[in-house]
Amino acid sequence: MIPYTVNIKLAARTLTGTLNLQNKTAVDWGWQGLIAQGCHSSILIIDPKTSQTIQVLERHKANVVKVKWSRENYYHNVSSPYCLRLASGDASGKIIVWDVVSGTVHCEIQEHSKPIQDMEWLWNQDASRDLLLAIHPPNYIVLWNGDTGTKLWKKSYAENILSFSFDPFDPSNMALLTSEGIVFITDFSHSKPPGSAGKKVYIASPHASPAHTKPAPAAAPVPTGAKKALNKVKVLITNEKPTAEAVTLNDCLQLSYLPSKRNHMLLLYPREILILDLELSQTVGVVAIERSGVPFIQVIPCAQRDALYCLHENGCITLRVCRTTTTPEEAQNVYELMYDLRSQCDAIRVTKTVRPYRMVICPVNENSAALMVSDGRAMLWELKAQASKAVGNPSSGLSPLYTPLSFCGSPLGPNQKRIQDLSLNSMIGQTLMAGEAPPPSSNQQDIQLKFLLTGLLSGLPLPPFALRMCPPLTTKNINHYQPLLAVGTSNGSVLVYNLTSGLLHKDLSVHSCEVRGIEWVSLTSFLSFATSAPNNMGLVRNELQHVNLPTGRCFAFRGERGNDEPPIEMIKVSHLKQYLVVVFRDKPLELWDTRTGTLLREMAKNFPTVTALEWSPSHNLKSLKKKQMAAREAIARQTVSDAEQTSVESSVISLLQDAESKSETSQAISAREHFVFTDTDGQVYHITVEGNTVKDGARIPPDGSMGSIACIAWKGDTLVLGDVDGNLNFWDLKARLSRGIPTHRGWVKKIRFAPGKGNQKLLVMYTDGAEVWDTKEVQMVSSMRIGRNVNYRILDIDWCTSDKVVLASDDGCVRVLEMAMKSASYRMDEQDLTDPVWCPYLLVPRAALTLKAFLLLQPWSGTFTMDITQVDMKSVLQDPELSLLQRCLLVSRLFGDESDLHFWTVARHEGTQTSPPNHLDICHDVLCESSYFQKFQLDRVHLQEVKRSSYDHTKKCADQLLLLGQTDRAVQLLLETSADNTSYYCDSLKACLVTTITSSGPSQSTIKLVATNMIANGKLAEGVQLLCLIDKAADACRYLQTYGEWNRAAWLAKVRLNPAESSDVLKRWAEHLCSPQVNQKSKAIMVLLSLGCFYKVGEMLQSMRHFDRAALFIEACLKYGVMEYARMLRSLGLREGAALWASRAGSAGQQLMEELFQGEGSVPEAIPGEEGVELSQDSTE
User: Fold this and answer.
1) HSE (CB half, 13 Å, CA atoms) of 259?
2) The whole model's pTM is what?
3) Distance, CA of 111 to CA of 151 (rounded, Å)
4) In the 3-class helix/strand/coil scheme, how is 639-704 assigned residue by residue?
5) Average pLDDT of the segment spanning 1147-1156
């Protein structure tokens, strides 16, 4: 008969624990909506919405030091689908690029053998989205193709590079943070390495520069105490190397460009954050911590608003928002960019082993943050806005924070549904420029921000661990079986995990010291023992606890015993869970009845010392039950044969007998069971236990080839002994044969048979790894060894099903592996998750795109139908008031689609002009309206002017003011030049020129001639200035473009030209961006979109094959010429939708209509493997 084994399907998985110090920087939150985190040599993928681990990637041999999600800044279609791609770098210099859904590797990259310092996917060019830039210590920057693993170029620098940051507004600029200062690179390109060594800038530490105190301008008010403190904390940025005592060490922790406004950078020090304006290389803002405050570890600048998320050493996350100045008087007195503290979350308790490592924020919405703690916890905080109670609290000195009453960028309809706190820019209104009136209160609301803890993931505590899997699945317990794993920890608690979901089922605080072993006595209760540290006599306190899982009740199993006795070595429960043997180090063993909790026998003093012990699987329960049944039947017959008994009475009697028999089977039967043990000489003893009688059986003399026996395992007719020298001895009890095999792997720590009838696999644990043996064939099935195929030491092992093993390792993880013991990542779609996860990236490409088409537009059905789990989203998406542009914005947020989000943000803004004009945020830079952009630039120059501290700074400010047309202020600055300066004469003349310029013909033509000559002779900036003086800024822009200064020209057009001229300049720029050598068509589209050239945008989207975006855009522009979207819908199997678009295209769509409905009544063609799509299609019809 074939042995019948039921196998509950458990996925291979890893339960992770505490982090290594090298994992500190290895965390990233991607546009895809998932968090990746390094834990020792594995990488966890966490879903922050449901706070569960949905994948663990294992391939690295060393600790993971960096992880980076690829960016989603490209157009998605079937050939370039939504996919989860992650790069991870480890301490041995290896980079692996993963396909996270399947857990497989795209490519492996190795250059040097030192830890990867930093890496980033290049996101801002259309040529390729596979490019990965990495820092290989000490001083190399290498650009890789992350799909194939080929090296594109490599460049070395003079100093050690710590990290880098890209300018979000100009992909050719990047800054490297080195051990001595900062290196600015302005010619970064993916096609060739940077040509120059970059511009080096040294940073003297903020407190070490006595020379740098700027004389206060006479008119300025005397600074208050706080201002004085801020003025001290200026940073000296020089191009010369500072003297040795001025800069001891570059203690700058981090450098980042601000994504919210151009040419600004932040430097983080433990006690302050400095905001630099890079045009002046000058500090324009300081966020300092008072003396008693907690130092910073990390700061993340936001893009949607000028705000900073800061992480402090006590694990507190604070949000600081840039202060807005409402009146011109206030604006005149502003000396710094002020960042006000608007919200903070609770701190954590920091100990020697528990400290905050890193924080990440959601890049799509920027309103949730995750904190990674060294003990393996991940805390998920969400920012919530609530209407403020007080009408502006004057004592706090903070201006009120307003929230815009709009949804997805458009004003809210009278009864339109909205999603609260969708993203940072829908929670906080725009920063007001100086002198701008605050908008009417009707479409604003005064709010306060709060952090709310919405999720918490915790890991295993520090190793060592003791593992024990609950009794195996059988045909009897199949209805209520749960695969529970008990993990005993070093702090005395026992964690019980459910291995189907991988989640913690119970955390029980059972002992006061390290748990040494666990034995289950039923599916819902177990015994665990712990021993305290020995006293000077070598005696300990033994704790043996019985724990009932459903109630959590635990009691001391040995009652008052346990103080001052030799330590317990092991506990063994018999197969029928009737008896328990407790083995001590220097004391005879005890035999207990587990059902009643009574001591059956304490062995005599002369009892041999036990080195290994195991219960026999054979017992006489079946024969006992047969006897009992026979006896009971006899009684029943006797009863029935008495004829006087009426039928009623007999039924009562039978009920009584039933009850009696039930109680007997549960208590009275004590079956006979046996156990074997070995003594120090290797002699095997056989002992029988029945009820409370203990009989000594046969003794088998020691086997000469074996050393001291360390462990025994017994199943069926096979008995296996393992010794301290690594020999395994297989006994076949039926055939009376024994076979010894030397494994040459040292001490055999533990051996266990696999569950399941007839399954004779054996798991063997050594000090350096583990093996699986087949005892029928007596041969090894699989093996793992530290240093060869894994880099962790195994602490404990067990079987969790008939074909899976579970290992605890010293890297703090517990792994469920296949029998082959190859640690492998699993497919995410095979996971059995407790909560459903919203992540379109997990779908096959066609399904993801169908879902997107479904969410965006359903013109083929009159109303908008959906079947999606997210309830609040569902009601909003079905809301008839939701405009198409709002819907496109919302879906791009749901999908975390970076390029879609940028496109629709600008499109929404251009397409809907509201009565109080709401501007595009300044993070869109040149795409903003000219008036808003000008105000921002003037504000900025004003700040630069206040901050200037040298002649260079003053000169730059004067130049900017001239370009902005602020001639009076520029003249004042020019006249400040001191007489001993070489430029004194020049500046004085320039001041005269600026004040005397008249618009007479001859002077204009002279100046124009001089300007063109200057430009021709390489003095571009000076020539442009002169042209701006005589209001020929359009010519100036043309010259700038001719000489390749495209960004400068765009800036000048925005601040000086009227809309028509400015539009010409920007259109030329767009053409330049489209040229093959630049290939930034997506940026060109944004520029054209901001100019309102909708027709051109539609054409370009079409030519770039961005069909669905084009169709939606044109639909939004109410022009219908959209064939390709119809074809795309048809290819996805959405026939009705395709027909609708085709009918709109008039004659052009005739052919497609015929194709769609040839042989009327034909069913829409099914797509193999897309049943889900077909169903949803039918439901909408």
Assistant:
1) 13
2) 0.82
3) 9
4) HHHCCCCCHHHHHHHHHHHHHHHHHHHHHHCCCEEEEEEECCCCCEEEEEEECCEEEEEEEECCCC
5) 64
